[in-house]
Amino acid sequence: MSTVAPSDWSTRPAPEGPDGWIGRATEVAAVLATDAVARDRAGATPYAEVQLLKDAGLVTLLGPTAHGGAGQDWPTAYRVVREVAAADGSIGQLLGYHYLWNWAARLVGTREQWEQVEAEAARQRWFFGGAVNPRDKDVVVRDEGETLVFSGRKSFSTGSRVSDVTVLEGVLERTDDHVFAVVPSDSDGLVFHDDWDNIGQRLTESGSVTLDEVRVPWAAAAGYVDKEFRPRVYNTLNVPTIQLVFAHFYLGIAAGALETAAVYTRTKARSWLHGGHERAVDEPYVLDAYGDLTAKLWAAEALADQVSAEGQRLHEDPDAVTERDRGAFEVRVAAVKARATDVALEVTNRIFEVTGARSTAAAEGLDRFWRNVRTHTLHDPVAYKRREVGRFRLTGDLPEPTWYS
C-alpha cells in the first residue's frame, strides 16, 4: 500500500477544529484511494492502513487533549469516517468501530474507569477492536474472586489482528448480567481466527475469535462497583451511536462510488451510438441519473449530519439523559439508517447504468462499492428500523433499548 511518511504530518501543525480534521481525513482518503482496488482484491490484513490512521492522528480524534488527543466531538468523528469510507469502506468501518469501542468505556464504565482508559488510549494511540456480537451468547464469564475469566467464542470480532486492545463481552455465569472489559489484543487465551471471507468489507478483520480462559481483573469490568453494575440511561446510547457510524460509512461508500463513476464517465465512457451525442457527459439519461443520485445522496447526508448534532447534545451531559431523550434519538437514528441504506444501495448499483458495460471490468473495481454496502447493510434488518419510525409516527411509542434498537 502507498503510505504517507509520518513526517509529512508530524512536521505540520495539528489540524484545528472540525474542518481541519475533516481535511486531514480527506488527505488520508486520497492515500487509500491510490490502490484501493488492489488492496480489496488482495484482502491482506490492513496493518499499514491502521498505521496510516495513527500517523494522521485520526485514531485519537476523540481523545482528551491533555493526553495527546484531538478533543473533537462525535459529529466530527462521523464526518471523518465518511471521508475515509469514500476511499475504502473497510477502513472507514474499522475507524468507526474504533471510535465506538474507545468511547464504550465512557458509555458503560465509571468515571474513574473511562478517564483511565481514554487517557491511556490517547497516550499510546491504541486502536480498538471488539468481540461483542450480541447474537452470540456462548461467552461465559466466571467469577474467581478478584478475577473474571472469559471463555467461549464469538463469530465476529471486527478489528481483531490489527487492534491493540479488544473490548470483550460475556454473560456472568448463572446470571443474565453482561460484562464488558477492555483487554490487550495479545492477551493469553484470546485467539483471532483468519476466517473472514465475505464478498464485501474484506479488510475489516471481522472473523471469529475464541476466548480460552481470558483473565481480567474485576476492577476492569466496565460499570461495576463492588461487583454490582451501576446502570445509567446513557449506557444504552451504544446502539444508536454505532448505528450512526454505520449510516455514515454507508454514505461515504456511496459518495466514493458516485465520484469514481463520474471520473469514469468523464474520461472513459462512450456515448450511445444512436443517441446523437458525441460525449457521454451530454447524454440526457446520464445527466438525469447523476442528478437523481446526487440529490438523494445530499439529502441523506444532510439528515445524517442533523441527527449527529442532536446526538452530540446527549453526549455532552451524560447524567442528564432521560429514557425519552434516548428513545427519541433512537427513532431519528433509525430514520437515518433506513435512508442511508436505501440510498447507498441505489447509488452503488445504478452507477453501472451511467458507466456502461466496459466499466464492469475487474480492473476498474466499481463492484467493490456495492459489495461493501450490500455486505454490511445486512448487519440488522432495515425493516425493523422503518418499523421503529412508523410506530413512533402512528402511536408515539418510543423503542425500548435492545442490542439493536
Automatic annotation (TrEMBL):
The lineage of its organism: Bacteria, Bacillati, Actinomycetota, Actinomycetes, Kitasatosporales. Residues 244-379 form the Acyl-CoA dehydrogenase C-terminal domain. Signal peptide: none annotated. Residues 1-21 are annotated as: Disordered. Residues 29-116 form the Acyl-CoA dehydrogenase/oxidase N-terminal domain. GO terms for molecular function: 3-methylbutanoyl-CoA dehydrogenase activity; flavin adenine dinucleotide binding; monooxygenase activity. Residues 1-10 have a biased composition (Polar residues). SUPFAM superfamilies: Acyl-CoA dehydrogenase C-terminal domain-like, Acyl-CoA dehydrogenase NM domain-like. GO terms for biological process: L-leucine catabolic process. Keywords: Flavoprotein, Monooxygenase, Oxidoreductase. It holds the Pfam family Acyl-CoA_dh_N. This is Monooxygenase. The keyword Ribosomal protein does not apply.
